[in-house]
Backbone:
């Protein structure tokens, strides 16, 4: 799901303060989301007092899980992006498209980078489970097997099999969601 953040905005024209929901991430594989970006409507707040519209300078990541690419719009340096990228690398592997997403300062260049990925001129890398996470999953399954042997029950073995399959499906779904 696209991530949104609630913020208090002060209109630069009339100084009226109002609540606004900003995008921190947006799923570009959905046409309506892609259109928000390509038509310059994302993170544009309209003041309820004077009606003036303002493009908010707030970094966000555009992702397309189907085509395995992501691009950050970072008009000003944002240290949180470093943390997010490190988290993606830890979770999904160093070369993963979310961990290696380019950071673009200029708005028009940001949109052109998206178009280059869509046309196949640039390539992202599908996510892969990091070895640490894979090890944790194997340890979890071994623990379930031990408990199953202690209880002499075939039910827990079936639960372990279901969790294994669901975990694989969940991980694939997680990739698609991001």
Residues:
């Amino acid at each position: 799901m696209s991530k949104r953040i609630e913020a208090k905005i002060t209109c630069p024209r009339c100084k009226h303060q109002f609540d606004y929901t900003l995008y921190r991430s947006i799923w570009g594989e959905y046409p309506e989301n892609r259109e928000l970006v390509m038509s310059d409507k994302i993170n544009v707040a309209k003041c309820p007092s004077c009606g003036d519209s303002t493009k908010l300078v707030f970094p966000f990541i555009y992702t397309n899980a189907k085509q395995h690419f992501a691009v950050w719009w970072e008009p000003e340096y944002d240290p949180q992006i470093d943390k997010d990228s490190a988290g993606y690398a830890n979770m999904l592997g160093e070369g993963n498209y979310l961990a290696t997403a380019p950071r673009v300062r200029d708005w028009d260049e940001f949109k052109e980078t998206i178009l280059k990925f869509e046309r196949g001129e640039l390539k992202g890398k599908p996510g892969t489970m990091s070895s640490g996470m894979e090890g944790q999953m194997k340890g979890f399954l071994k623990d379930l097997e031990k408990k199953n042997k202690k209880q002499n029950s075939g039910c827990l073995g079936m639960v372990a099999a279901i969790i294994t399959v669901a975990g694989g499906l969940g991980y694939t779904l997680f990739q698609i969601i991001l």
Remarks:
- The chain has two domains: 4-119, 131-177.
- Strands lie at 4-10, 17-23, 25-27, 44-46, 53-55, 60-64, 69-73, 103-104.
